[in-house]
Amino acid sequence: MTTRKVLVVAEHDHVSMKTATRNAVTAALACGDEVHVLVAGYNASEAAQAAARVVGVSKVLHADAPSLAEGLAENLAAQVLALASPYGYILFPATSSGKNVAPRVAALLDVAQISDVVRVVSSDTFERPIYAGNAIATVQSSDPVKVITVRPTGFDAALAEGGVASIDSVEAVADSGLSAFVERVVAKSDRPELAGARIVVSGGRALGSSEKFLDVLSPLADKLGAALGASRAAVDAGYAPNDWQVGQTGKIVAPQLYIACGISGAIQHQAGMKDSRVIVAINKDPDAPIFEIADYGLEADLFDAVPQLVAAL
């Protein structure tokens, strides 16, 4: 019987693996028999060692060169292509980085990309959400290589410790010269990263201003050790930065607890958070759609309810 090999393209910070990569490893284990992880970066040996400890990974391919330092999509796609021949599946986390690289790899391999997979039905059949998550499409592919992006919320993360994979150094591709890294601007915060947070406190347009957004929601988030999120309406109004946006055009989250404050719950927002374990909604509009998916709903003015909640914690 032929071994079905799967390559997972890791997302990392050169030291540790992003959780979304471990979600992709779980999906990879459902696709094939042997899971390899590509760690492409510069001075990223610690990340390669972290990948080798992930349970379920049998081999880590470590490509190390200055051209791979910033994860430029053109260079990373070329690196994946150089290693692609033994693999029947190439998986990326469906993050901003993965969505940037995967289409290039699929195009260069002349195959169709299968996006946002949430379930592996069989070796050639997958499920993915469509219509903002209101329907699930079953996709069957006959392509010799399946290039897949994996929605992290669709799969449990593989265990970070306990694996004993080998690490093989592979030749890094030369710089393509098609793009150049200019600057990275990172918002620093003591709070957890939104995409991987266990608790998320989100606010909507009802908060009225960026000052009220922070004044009302920050104490609750601080009490709970939560990440802050926002609806698209709040982001578009300038109340919260873009990287806080939860929804179809923002980040997809599935925390243990999601608290929606002053968010009506439009279908686009629900698409980004409805897989949360427990959803709490605070809204003074009894007809707000968010109440339809909430486990606990409080019909109240958030400016009264949230401070009372903080005081009670």
Your description of this structure?
The chain has 313 residues and is of the alpha/beta class. It folds into two domains: 5-170, HUPs (Rossmann fold), CATH 3.40.50.620; 194-312, Rossmann fold, CATH 3.40.50. It is 28% helix and 26% strand. The protein is built from nine helices and 15 strands. The strands form three sheets. It has a seven-stranded parallel beta sheet, sandwiched between helices. A five-stranded parallel beta sheet has the order 12-11-13-14-15. Strands 6-7-8 form a three-stranded antiparallel beta sheet. Helix 8 (290-293) links the parallel strand 14 (278-283) and strand 15 (296-299). Helix 5 packs parallel to helix 9 (302-312). It is globular, with a radius of gyration of 21 Å. The model has no long low-confidence stretch (mean pLDDT 93).
CATH class of the largest domain: Alpha Beta
Tell me the total number of β-strands: 15
CATH fold description of the largest domain = Rossmann fold
Give helix % range: 25-40%
Strand order of the largest sheet: 5-9-4-1-2-3-10
Shape: globular
Overall SS class: alpha/beta
Name the CATH superfamily assignment of the largest domain.
HUPs
What's the gyration radius in Å? 21 Å
**Sheet with the most strands?**
7 strands, parallel
Overall pLDDT: 93
Task: Give the termini distance in whole angstroms.
Answer: 58 Å
